[in-house]
Amino acid sequence: MAKLLAIDSLNIVRRVYEASPEPDSDLKAGIALRHAFSSFRTLLETHAPTHVLAAFDYGGKTWRHALYPRYREHRAPMPSVLREALPAFQERLRTAGVPVAMLPEVEADDVVATCVMRWLNENRGEAIVATTDKDLHVLIAHGALVWDHFKNEWHDDPWVRNKFGVAPEQLHDLLALMGDATDGVPGVSKIGMKTAARLLTAYGSLDAVMAGAGILKTPLGERLRAERDILYLSRQLVQLKTDVRLGVTWKMLAYESHEGAV
């Protein structure tokens, strides 16, 4: 049976890099990328995919910045030493038979989501997403599984419900309501995860929340009405783009283990 492994690559690289308390340096970047390469090797050995894609952010402005110029404005930039070392790391992956994808104006999340959704919609087999990014967990609603490399654990429908208090298909509505400080997604003021989950459990969807809770004569109802536009903007920002022109075929993503390389 065919199996796709879609790797949220910078999620792994940056987690490995930031795990070291040492100051930024070429040496730190080199060591981190060696460990990251070992992480990729472990992923491939663990899951034995027939097809693989390593998605990276291209860098620069994306379609989300066009919607909301303040998107990610407070996120710390990637250390220059790490950014400069990435091309050689990506080439090492390609040499080892791991296809690399990064496209202008979209994020790696969009590349992963597009690839996984096409794979599932064509009923090609199992789809695994290697990430700790909460946004990508919505793909579980469509039949994918998420693998947390750092904890060696599967994330599935029950895991999402236990972690976030909602079903995977409600996850983007949850993130729109509560916002995401890491990415600069504003959400609705004074709504955290528990309140957002309670609203979605009661009403089912963001539109239903606004139709029902939005007429409540309470401070919460007032905030929902007053911040309606920013709420729906937040919903657009957390939505995964699934129609990216990837420029690859399944044949190009076919993976065969390169003995001694990965």
UniProtKB/TrEMBL annotation:
CDD domains: H3TH_53EXO, PIN_53EXO. The keyword Mitochondrion does not apply. Residues 2-256 form the 5'-3' exonuclease domain. Pfam families: 5_3_exonuc, 5_3_exonuc_N. It comes from the Bacteria. GO terms for molecular function: exonuclease activity. Keywords: DNA-binding, Exonuclease, Hydrolase, Nuclease. InterPro entries: 5-3_exonucl_a-hlix_arch_N (IPR020046), 5-3_exonuclease (IPR002421), 5-3_exonuclease_C_sf (IPR036279), DNA_polI_H3TH (IPR020045), FEN (IPR038969), HhH2 (IPR008918), PIN-like_dom_sf (IPR029060). This is 5'-3' exonuclease H3TH domain-containing protein. It comes from Massilia jejuensis.
